[in-house]
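Hi there,

I know you've been waiting on this one. I reran it after we fixed the sequence typo, so this is the corrected version. Both the input and the resulting structure follow.
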Amino acid sequence: MTTPGVKAQMPKNVRLALVGVWVQAVLNLAAGFLLLAVVNDAVDHGDDEGVGLLRFVAVLTLLVAGALLLCGVFAGTRANGIRVTIIVVEALSLLSSVVGLLQGGGVGVLPGIVLPLVVLRGAASAEARNWFDR
């Protein structure tokens, strides 16, 4: 129970999860813009094959980055929808990385598995549930 006028301290694992959310948002922004640059370069050179799917992936990556950025910005409001959104996005990210690993992605896919696991652990914890369910 919190006392009125006293700001509650965010639990350490929730702060760690939010750091992971910010890192993943920035990386998704970079990846999305890089994919769009590749698409634009391919179109400029007359290679239109497979560009539609790559453009879709780039836009999806940017949308995920936007959702994560919004979650990071509004985490201080302590709305439970923020925590749920983080859990859903991270679960989908983890699933995508595991599929990439199974398709022969190699060691380069491991950060895409570890980061969502760390964020999921923090966002799904009892402390996070209590923090966001004010």
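Quick highlight: The chain has five helices and no strands.

Best,
R. S.
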